[in-house]
Amino acid sequence: MRGYSAPKLVITDEAGYVPDTMAAAILPMLATGGGRRIDMSSPNGRRGYFYESWQYGENAERIKITGPQCPRISAKYLEQMKKELGPMLYAQEFEGEFIDDSATAFNSELIEAALVDDLSPWPRLAA
């Protein structure tokens, strides 16, 4: 993959599952030719370059199509998938939601809430 210079278009399918190092190898290829990169994927957790790009990327067009919006997927099938996958995996696979890994001790929203810039020291208690 490395070494190809100035492609007009690079499409990364299932980008949520591509290692960050491979994604980083694509960027220098686009440096000189003005090529375009398209990342397509279902989410794969709240981590990795696809998640970071979707959440925080600048100058990116985001298109999200969920299972219920797809006319080829029946409502009956979606209901079956909700039962089989459970609410979290269903949300990831059919609603395009970035979810936390079930093995994490703290979810990412809790961790982000703990990261503040205006932290003041604890008040001293009277002895």
Topology at a glance:
Blueprint (H helix, E strand, L loop, with lengths): L8 E5 L6 H10 L6 E5 L7 H9 L18 H21 L12 H7 L13
Parallel strand pairs: 1-2
First-to-last CA distance: 66 Å
The structural class is mainly alpha
Radius of gyration: 20 Å
C-alpha geometry: flat
Strand order of the largest sheet: 1-2
Q: How many H/I helical runs?
A: 4
Largest sheet: 2 strands, parallel
Element order: H for helix, E for strand: EHEHHH
Report the average pLDDT across residues: 86
What does this protein structure show overall?
- The chain is mainly alpha-helical and 127 residues long.
- The protein folds into two domains: 1-63, no CATH class; 65-115, no CATH class.
- The protein is 37% helix and 8% strand.
- It has a two-stranded parallel ribbon with strand order 1-2.
- The longest helix is centred in the C-terminal third of the chain and has 21 residues, at 75-95.
- The chain is flat.
- The model has no long low-confidence stretch (mean pLDDT 86).
Brief description of this entry?
With 127 residues, the protein is mainly alpha-helical. It contains four helices and two strands, in the order E-H-E-H-H-H. It has two domains: 63 residues, no CATH class; 51 residues, no CATH class.
Question: Which terms summarize this structure?
Answer:
127 residues, mainly alpha, 2 domains, two-stranded parallel sheet, 4 helices, 2 strands, flat
